[in-house]
C-alpha cells in the first residue's frame, strides 16, 4: 500500500488567496483526520470523518476553513481567504475503525506558508 | 477528561546509552495509550500501542513502554540509543475516537 498521500507537499501563497490541500487515505480505512502542527500550538486535530461524514469539526479554527470528503478515497481542506497565521504543517491521517480508530497512519504533510 | 503530560521537552543521551522518555496520563477509565515518533521534516509514525493486553508493550526499532496503572504512567524506553533515534516523540491517549496528544519530547543523541 502506498500509505496516506497528501498534495502538495509544499505550498507558498499570498495572504487572501484560496488554498486547497488534498488527501488520499489508505484504501479500506473509514476514518480520516486532518491535523495542523505549529511550533506554538503543537499538533491540533481540526476535523475528522467517518465513512465520508464529518463527525467532529470543533477544532476548525474559523469559518475560513472548510473540509470535504466527497468519497472514500479523497478529502480536501480548504482555506479561504488564507492569512499568515495559517502557516503550518497540515497532516492527514486515516485509520481502520471502529476498533482501531486510534491506530492512525499519517501522510507526509503539507507545509503551508502564507506571506 | 483525558489528558497526557510529557514530563521533558528535551532529552539528551549519548549513543549506546539507555533512553527514558516519561509520560503521565489522566483517564477516567482504562485508556488506550500510544507513542508516535516524528523524524525531522517527516510525518508521524506509530511506535507502539497499549490497549489493555500486556502491560509491557514492544514497539518498532527496539523501543518498549510499560503501562503502570498505579502511577498513571506510560514511559518509553530503549536499552541502547542509536543516532537514528533522534526525533520527536509524542505520548498519546485515545479517547472518543480522537487522539489526545502530549506536547512532545525531543530526543537528542550525542555521538
Taken in chain order, the helices and strands of chain B follow as EEEEEEEEEEEE
Strand segment tally of chain B: 12
H/E element order of chain A: EEEEEEEEEEE
Percent in helix of chain B: under 10%
Largest beta-sheet characterization of chain B: 6 strands, mixed
Distance between the termini of chain B: 41 Å
C-alpha end-to-end distance of chain A = 36 Å
Anisotropy-based shape of chain A = globular
What is the alpha-carbon Rg of chain B in Å?
Answer: 13 Å
- Strands of chain A, total number: 11
Overall average residue pLDDT of chain A: 93
Share of β-strand residues of chain B: over 45%
**Largest interface here, residues on each chain?**
A-B, 22 and 17 residues
Report strand % of chain A: over 45%
How helix-rich are the residues of chain A, as a percent range? Answer: under 10%
Provide a short characterization of the protein structure.
The complex is a heterodimer of chains A (115) and B (111). Chain A has 115 residues and is mainly β.
Amino acid at each position: 500500500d502506498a500509505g496516506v498521500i497528501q498534495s502538495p507537499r509544499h505550498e507558498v501563497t499570498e495572504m487572501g488567496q484560496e488554498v486547497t490541500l488534498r488527501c488520499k487515505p489508505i484504501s479500506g480505512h473509514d476514518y480520516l483526520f486532518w491535523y495542523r502542527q505549529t511550533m506554538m500550538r503543537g499538533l491540533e486535530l481540526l476535523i475528522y470523518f467517518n465513512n465520508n461524514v464529518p463527525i467532529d469539526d470543533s477544532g476548525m479554527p474559523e469559518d475560513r476553513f472548510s473540509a470535504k470528503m466527497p468519497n472514500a478515497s479523497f478529502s480536501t481542506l480548504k482555506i479561504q481567504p488564507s492569512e499568515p497565521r495559517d502557516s503550518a504543517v497540515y497532516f492527514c491521517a486515516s485509520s481502520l475503525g471502529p476498533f482501531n480508530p486510534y491506530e492512525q497512519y499519517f501522510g507526509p504533510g503539507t507545509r503551508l506558508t502564507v506571506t | 477528561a483525558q489528558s497526557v503530560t510529557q514530563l521533558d521537552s528535551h532529552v539528551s543521551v549519548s549513543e549506546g546509552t539507555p533512553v527514558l522518555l516519561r509520560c503521565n496520563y489522566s483517564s477516567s477509565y482504562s485508556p488506550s495509550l500510544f507513542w508516535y515518533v516524528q523524524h525531522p521534516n517527516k510525518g508521524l509514525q506509530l511506535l507502539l500501542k497499549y490497549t489493555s493486553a500486556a502491560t509491557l508493550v514492544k514497539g518498532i526499532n527496539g523501543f518498549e513502554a510499560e503501562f503502570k496503572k498505579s502511577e498513571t504512567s506510560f514511559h518509553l524506553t530503549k536499552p541502547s540509543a542509536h543516532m537514528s533515534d533522534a526525533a520527536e516523540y509524542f505520548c498519546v491517549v485515545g479517547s472518543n475516537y480522537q487522539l489526545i496528544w502530549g506536547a512532545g519530547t525531543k530526543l537528542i543523541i550525542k555521538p
